[in-house]
Amino acid sequence: MDWFEKSLQENFDLPPKNPSEEAQRRWRSAVGALVKNRRRRFRMVADLDSRSQNEAHRRSIQEKIRLALYVQKAAITFIDGAKHKEYRLTEDIINARFSINPDELASITSKHDVKALRMHGGVDGISKKIRSTFDHGISASDLDTRQNIYGVNRYAEKPSRSFWMFVWDALQDMTLIILMVCALISAVVGLASEGFPKGMYDGLGIILSILLVVMVTAVSDYRQSLQFKELDNEKKKIFIHVTRDGSRQKISIYDLVVGDIVHLSIGDQVPADGLYIHGYSLLIDESSLSGESDPVYISQDKPFLLAGTKVQDGSAKMMITAVGMRTEWGRLMSTLSEGGEDETPLQVKLNGVATIIGKIGLVFATLTFVVLMVRFFIEKGLTVGLSKWYSTDALTIVNYFATAVTIIVVAVPEGLPLAVTLSLAFAMKKLMHDKALVRHLSACETMGSAGTICTDKTGTLTTNHMVVDRIWISDASKSVTSDSSLEDLNSVISPTTLGLFLQGIFENTSAEVVKEKDGAQTVLGTPTERAILEFGLKLQGSHDAEDRTCTKVKVEPFNSDKKKMAVLVSLPNGTYRWFSKGASEIVVQMCDMMVDADGNSVPLSEAQRRNILDTINAFASDALRTLCLAYKEVEDFDDDSDSPTGGFTLISIFGIKDPLRPGVKDAVKACMSAGIIVRMVTGDNINTAKAIAKECGILTDDGIAIEGPDFRSKSPEEMRDLIPKIRVMARSLPLDKHTLVTNLRGMFHEVVAVTGDGTNDAPALHEADIGLAMGIAGTEVAKESADMIVLDDNFTTIINVARWGRAVYINIQKFVQFQLTVNIVALVINFVSACITGSAPLTAVQLLWVNMIMDTLGALALATEPPNDDMMKRPPVRRGESFITKVMWRNIVGQSMYQLVVLGALMFGGEQLLNIKGADSKSVINTLIFNSFVFCQVFNEINSREMQKINVFRALFP
Length: 958
Prior knowledge:
By secondary structure, this protein is an alpha+beta fold. The chain is built from 33 helices and 26 strands. Strands 10, 11, 14, 15, 16, 17, 18, 19 and 20 form a 9-stranded mixed beta sheet that branches. It has an 8-stranded mixed beta sheet with strand order 8-26-25-24-9-21-23-22, with helices on both faces. Strands 1, 2, 3, 4, 5, 6 and 7 form a 7-stranded antiparallel beta sheet that branches. The longest helix has 42 residues, at 795-836. It starts with a helix and ends in a 14-residue tail after the last helix. The model is unreliable at 1-20, 38-58, 61-70, 75-85, 336-342 and 542-547 (pLDDT under 50). This is Calcium-transporting ATPase.
């Protein structure tokens, strides 16, 4: 090896700690030359070998070549490693006592760079370099420093549009541009013929009217954009659990910093890039980033978690390594510009109406212009002849053309989309105060047409704070609502039974006890898990806890298909014990033994099994949710297999109560009177579900309750007869809810609203016309799939959404009735006057002024009427019903006829009726016609407040 070492010394120095580009180049060149030289010698040896040279010498040369190749590989690895070391530690990073560059830290996770992670000492090494510990987290006093160095967890958003951009957009209307050209021509011709300032009046008046219309439209659109931005910010408020200063806290994702220890559970969205610390069966849906539908299993061997992905199964702790624009999601978002809201179905329908009316207006405008021009040419030919032309003639033609264009402007009901948007935005703003966050604009409008609400029970109809009300253990059933009843229970069961029972509660749970900032302890988890853990803590009380020195070996989180959860723990004696907890009928079937009063396992006889089933039914009949706890001793286990499905020993049955929310009975009653059918879809026992449904008024005499398995077994023909009667579906799977919603929409053409809180509810929420996710109990996946988020998880809020939805629909109908009346009258009066008298009584300036009032202030007034109780006493608008009803046509035709009679009388007989004489009588009559037309629209707007009842002044001053 002397020659080899000598060659290394001759060709290049030993590598410095931070090699320069020149040093790297020398390494590459030297190692490449060395390898080339060794390969040449190898070929020479091969030739010598063919001449029967010494075999030992050939092997020696081969070994040297192999070592040279290793050197080359080491050099390349060194050079690649040098690239990682290009990330410099700046003075700010060093002063803050961090040991890793933000960009390098971010690249490790985003690039899934296992080599770089190992080079830094793995997850443990990274945590030390960013001064974070797995149990304590970070210190809250470091937040500003961390944000300054590693960034904030916010994404760069597209800058908001300024007010002047809205003004520019409003000026792009083609008809307004044509009118401005006409106004300029009118001003030029007027100055030439009539001089200044009289010749400027018509042209300047049109320009000022156009500018006023543009400014009002721009102000309205700008205010609306600000509202949407505010609502969008509300929509993005997501909270997550982290460990800071040694205590678990709930914070906004925007407050996350590098080093935070985040707790993830099923349905959560990963809030930033990070590294997996530990957890159970963590499956991540990365389809939002990779497009791949298959979930990714995350473990300590593959610890990389990316922002924007979702937890599909399991739970875990992660350490944040990159936030905001340094995350992979942030870089993706920087290449995209967020789109605006899609048009709602009603907006699409009204745009079609606007197009038809616009075409009718174009025909009327063309006919009006043609009639005016024909009369002009006839009169001119009969008086002075067609060969003589004056500047006033050009002014007349320009005014005729401006009048025709203005008729188009008036006829095109561009206020319809504005009215829809205003009404929806107003409703969204009001619903925010009523604890409902609208994610999709169309949901407001669609909710007004809902004929069915498929609702959860827990948390929606009930308070979502469960407590253990009764318990069965050691063949004894006890009420445990008070401290004395707990003491009574302690006297019934032996310490051995109590220890086993408490071990099952504390080990087999997804809830956990955390310490708040003030030192108080809080139980976090699902309502059911919290209730059982709180009961265990209360039962443990002042007693010394039974020795539960065991270690969790395997965890199976609760699965909605299996309806149970399980945990495997290792005991001090070297054996293992499975604990399983879940739906009563599932767990009882798994048991062939039970725990007696002395803590011994005894066979479960048929008589005892019947007694247990009777106890479960008795609990459920009292509106208690039942869960069973069981255990099984095993000698060994298989990492790849699931928990056993038999051979368990039954420990206890829990009867958990969740009282009804205040106001739910009245809300369900309001639904019934509004023609909305409420159906409860729950995973609870059918007796529990029926008891709650009867208590809140959902299950009536003509309704039925059914279990999920029975529902799944029905044929399509049987479902057609069965579904209209279903009021309660118990023991349902997520697929059952999805099937029910699909059939309600497909078979019966119902507009269906669905409430949900879990990840498993996402398909039904997505399938429904309106998906309503729970804001408190709901997972991020459920919220992403929903159209609305019910922030207080209250069924009464859902009814309020339906009220506002109906108000939106009816308000738009009012505005359409009002606007169509104005359009018909304006078109007919100008066209008839042009045909008979040769002039239009309503000038371009006057029509523009009316159009401005009609399209903006009229829309604002009618589109923002609040809901009233009468709206919830009429049936919902069914899918496919005509938007313009017979009542609306009656009001439109009646109001139009009345206005045309009044204006026609003034136009053709006004001078005689009012005894108006003189040279300016025509101008006086036209002014009177215009004022009468305006006041008619004021009365018309008041009349439009109520389409059916005579008293249109009701609640005018609320």
